[in-house]
Amino acid sequence: MLAVLADPRVVIVGDRVQIPFELDRPLYEHVDRILRMAGARWDGRKKVRAHVFDHQAEEFMRQVIASAEFPSRYEQGWYPSPPAVVEQVLERAGISERRPGLTVLEPSAGTGCIAGPAAARGAVVDVVEIDARRVEVLRRHDFARRVIHGDFLADVHPLDYPEGFSRVVMNPPFDSAIAHVQHAMGFLGDDAVLVAVMPEYVLWRSDLVTKKFRWQVQANEGEFVSLPRDAFAPSGVTVHSVLATVPTGHDGCTIRNHSWHRSHPKQQYELFAI
Known about the structure:
By secondary structure, this protein is an alpha/beta fold. The protein contains eleven helices and eleven strands. The N and C termini lie far apart (49 Å).
């Protein structure tokens, strides 16, 4: 099915996907079903004759074709970070051509929507991704210094790296966003910044984990900035989200960053966890 959508004759412009050539009936029904599951509807009017999304679809389709994976609108999973969101993440992280050489980690990197533009601005980028198909895409792009195929929470530890990163930028799975961001803090250097796309509930949920996380961010001179309601529409989903920014270069920092982990070796705190 993705081979059909990758055909150069297919027209993907704005909110429309148009296939201007005939498919045999079973293949057409399969393509139609997948596009509908992703949120498109068929518009058979003569002047349209295309599958139409209720959002701009070009970037979403580009990432889908690159990764050979087509997520439905119903699944809790990967949705690529739209360019406008990526731009805000990089700006808040201070990643630009004026500061080449910053070391950057993107956990749960997907197909590299954030890491790729960071590398293009001169950053030295490492990525972690759990899905084998997206890992292959990342390796083909060849912008990362290191690509790790694994579960960021379970398989990757700060002490796997000799030193902390200048920046951590991330769009973690929303169902475990706080756990991912707290783990990612351990990879920060001593004068570093983490910027994460997170679900809006981190601003208002009253459970102990969320309240402690909010306090942790704000107590360390971090902040939350709301994204527009339609920020992820180009990726085929409507989610209410915020950007969380956490710095480590300030007096009284309590973030358990890379330096903290170096002074609390892995074996030591695993012993206490028994």
